[in-house]
Amino acid sequence: MKVGLIGLGRMGRAMAERLEETGAELLVWNRSADKAGGLAAEVAESPAAVAAGRDVVLSIMANDAALEAVYFGTGGLCSAPLGGTTIVEMTTTAPDTIRRLEAAVREAGGRLVECPVGGTIAPARAGKLLGLAGGEADDLERVMPVMQQLVRRIEHVGPVGAGAAMKLSINLPLMVYWAALGEALGLAIGSGIDPELALDILADSSGAIGAAKMRVPPILEMLRTGEPGGVNFALEVALKDMGLMEEACAATGRPGTVIAATRAKAAAAAREGFGPLDASMVGLCGLVDPNRKETK
């Protein structure tokens, strides 16, 4: 199985390792070529070179600026004919953005399926992501042998743009939860309850989400020592996504008041130094100073 992969950030790297493990012959591109170190993959000179060498190309970028460069910059995907190439765009972006990219790819002679995913680095490495596909059924069928190596479940949610909307929809309550968890923890600590006991009860309660127990140890360590542990999904990236959520709510005429309040709280936490930390730490702003590493 010959696959192209553009973007070797945290998620892209995990997916590359997973695909190589399943026997894929990868042709990759990343702005910093050294990110391919340790992979068996061949490194291409440009995104266009990846598309020229593979019929199926996966792309996963950090933000819209990176997407613009990959598609429309020098050596970008749309800088050369794309006949016979199907691109699977996995970046979290706005529905309007992915529709614009699909139109550009189609004009260049290629096909585009969107498939943003639910899950972080560990599920990506294990092939246990949740795929949220948008596009034509025939195009999705064409890339399924590749996608099945990365996902535990893939759903065709509608035309191009629907996958982006669904990805924002699944991330929205997660962002709200981490902010609310911090407030709940602050209430408990302020009432004299031991932080470890409070976290354990909160994670075991009916209000907890599936990811809560996994994040309890690093949250507790942050409370105790100010050490935040590893980052699965940085708050500064989550802030970008929350902005997309607000825009998508506005575009559909639906209220976005809860995510707007959560985004304001997250922005305040980022200003206090939480931006590079995992998004699950957002609620600890005001309880822990990430710069001095001491409990308030």
Automatic annotation (TrEMBL):
GO terms for molecular function: NAD binding; NADP binding; oxidoreductase activity. Keywords: NAD, Oxidoreductase. The keyword Repeat does not apply. InterPro entries: 3-OH-isobutyrate_DH-rel_CS, 6-PGluconate_DH-like_C_sf, 6PGD_dom2, 6PGDH_NADP-bd, HIBADH-like_NADP-bd, HIBADH-related, NAD(P)-bd_dom_sf. Pfam families: NAD_binding_11 (PF14833), NAD_binding_2 (PF03446). Residues 161-280 form the 3-hydroxyisobutyrate dehydrogenase-like NAD-binding domain. The active site is at 167. Residues 2-158 form the 6-phosphogluconate dehydrogenase NADP-binding domain. It comes from the Bacteria. GO terms for biological process: organic acid catabolic process. The keyword tRNA processing does not apply. Belongs to the HIBADH-related family. This is NAD(P)-dependent oxidoreductase.
